[in-house]
Amino acid sequence: MTSSIFHAETDEQIAATFDVLQQLRPHLERDQYVPTMRALMGSDGLRVLALDDDGVVRAVATYRVMNMLYCGRLVYIDDLVADERVRSRGYGAQLIAWIKDEARSLGCSEVQLISRVTREQAHRFYFREGFGIECFHFRTQLS
């Protein structure tokens, strides 16, 4: 496998992550994707991580570094998705391992993410990668 993991920082690199990330976030629109990601990168410190295999983006993660009163410094994963056409090839595990290493190097105490209750396959993957369920995440829609 000739894969590499890199931060998508140029507009071209960010745009190359669209097709994979849209599999997780189907509401995203191609023409607004780069400006939306740039805005989140600027305002919230979002980082876009891509795994490229033979010149094709195969998996994407977005994450940010945060500080919380209850646990200190952490990496929060917003999105993690491997291209559905090439799942179960270890791409997601490579991204998780990279993020854990990055979190350690940044002095973080943990890595967190939220996953919808309906995503059972993703949950099995997260358990295998050492994540556990620690709390409920409550949400309400505002009109």
Automatic annotation (TrEMBL):
<dbReference type="InterPro" id="IPR000182">
    <property type="entry name" value="GNAT_dom"/>
</dbReference>
<dbReference type="Pfam" id="PF00583">
    <property type="entry name" value="Acetyltransf_1"/>
</dbReference>
<dbReference type="InterPro" id="IPR050832">
    <property type="entry name" value="Bact_Acetyltransf"/>
</dbReference>
<protein>
    <submittedName>
        <fullName>GNAT family N-acetyltransferase</fullName>
    </submittedName>
</protein>
<keyword id="KW-0808">Transferase</keyword>
<dbReference type="InterPro" id="IPR016181">
    <property type="entry name" value="Acyl_CoA_acyltransferase"/>
</dbReference>
<keyword id="KW-0012">Acyltransferase</keyword>
<feature type="domain" description="N-acetyltransferase">
    <location>
        <begin position="4"/>
        <end position="143"/>
    </location>
</feature>
